[in-house]
Write a structure and sequence with these properties.
single chain; 231 residues; mainly beta; Jelly Rolls; 2 domains; eight-stranded antiparallel beta sheet; five-stranded antiparallel beta sheet; 3 helices; 32% strand; globular; hydrolase activity; signal
Amino acid sequence: MKKQLHLACVVCGVLGFASAACANELTDKEKAEGWVSLFDGKTLEGWRNYKGEGVREGWQVVDGTMQHTKKGGDLITNKKYQDFELKLEWKISERGNSGIFLSVIEEPAKIYFSGIEMQILDDESHPDGKFVKHRSGGCYGLYQPPAGAVAAVGSWNKVRVLKQGDHYQFFLNGVKTADFKTESEAFKTLVKKSKFKKWPEFASSLKGHIGLQDHGDVVNFRNLKIREIKK
């Protein structure tokens, strides 16, 4: 059985997609490179609600994915990360909205008061899709992603985030969708012109939790993996 499972994963890797048989597993190459899984496909161990201790029922493991349905609250990793490379896949429901938060601290009342968000959205059907800085893959409210990077609603999208110091780079399905430095004058100027200017904690920490947003819609995540970058 183990040989069959390993063969299935090899085939998946060659074809460039993940199936239920090999999703959420680290390859030998990833293990050698220092990657760690943030989701085992079976439990929500390693995660908790923002400003909470456990995980609400709105988040469940369904068919090897982390699925949010409703009233689950925002999730964060138990651990904080500073310099890292993050990979994951997401699938949003029709007219759905969610997000991936970075460098989250828990002092503020809301997760988005501090966390930088990589947007997840049904760009075509959600009302937010008409605002270019609210579209999938971009740094929400600040940087517009290039057109055409996001897959059709109901399809899996691959995310890669590279963070080193104050330098953040977002990739969606292999396309770079944002590249910025939070300590730069350019970034600070954008913040001053946005709603984030009201929250002094926004983008204030270089180390923090990774978060997944509850925006009231169904969203699925899988293959959440992280590699810490040592200085």
